[in-house]
Amino acid sequence: MTDFVLPPPAIASVAVAGSAERFAVRRIFCVGRNYAAHARELGNDERDPPFFFTKPADAVVDSGAEIPYPPLTLNLHHEIELVVAIGKAGFRIARADALAHVWGYGVGVDLTRRDLQDQAKKAARPWDWSKAFDRSAPCGPLLPVAKSGHPEKGRIWLAVNGDVKQDGDLAELIWPVADVVAICSEAIELQPGDLIFTGTPAGVGAVQAGDRITGGVDGIGAIEVTIGQPRP
């Protein structure tokens, strides 16, 4: 038995739809600018190869959570995303084999401190402080592939206080799930427990303390979180 100088941290996990079991999260990878309309609203208009950034595993929180408005920002943005849960390890996975590595799918929100991201872009610095903060990756229950299949189209949407802000379709993904999994695996060996947030459609915008965020992906599931007051 291994002795640790401090108690090991709790295992980050995501709920599984229709089950008391949970999906242990190992790492979180996120794809930037994977919907053309969203790329254009951020001032880009090219089909570049997908690029990735990361969030810590313990950034996940369940649907239904209240998330304190984070520090160091005055411009917190919502980004609704299809989430891919990896269930089989793989390195340099061929595109034709990529979907066999997917355990299931869910609905997530990539919360972003947009003002910090804009500052980082201008200074050519990493995005970590804008993306990888506490509770920045709320994720709804995962639906196993046996129940969901591999979605190629379907509505993806997000509303703030009932007002729809993002409304797109998975068919608009520049790089579909198989491409994203295969390309990510060229850089790192994917492992069971990895999550991939696949990008967000157009319509991202700011939320404030007290706002209720709801969203979903047809055939996959839904998510709901509330933005609470900043921590004292």
TrEMBL record:
GO terms for molecular function: acetylpyruvate hydrolase activity; metal ion binding. It comes from the Bacteria. The keyword Metal-binding applies. Residues 28-227 form the Fumarylacetoacetase-like C-terminal domain. The keyword Transport does not apply. Pfam families: FAA_hydrolase. Keywords: Hydrolase, Metal-binding. InterPro entries: Fumarylacetoacetase-like_C, Fumarylacetoacetase_C_sf. PANTHER family: ACYLPYRUVASE, FLUTATHIONE S-TRANSFERASE. This is Fumarylacetoacetate hydrolase. It comes from Rhizobium loti (Mesorhizobium loti).
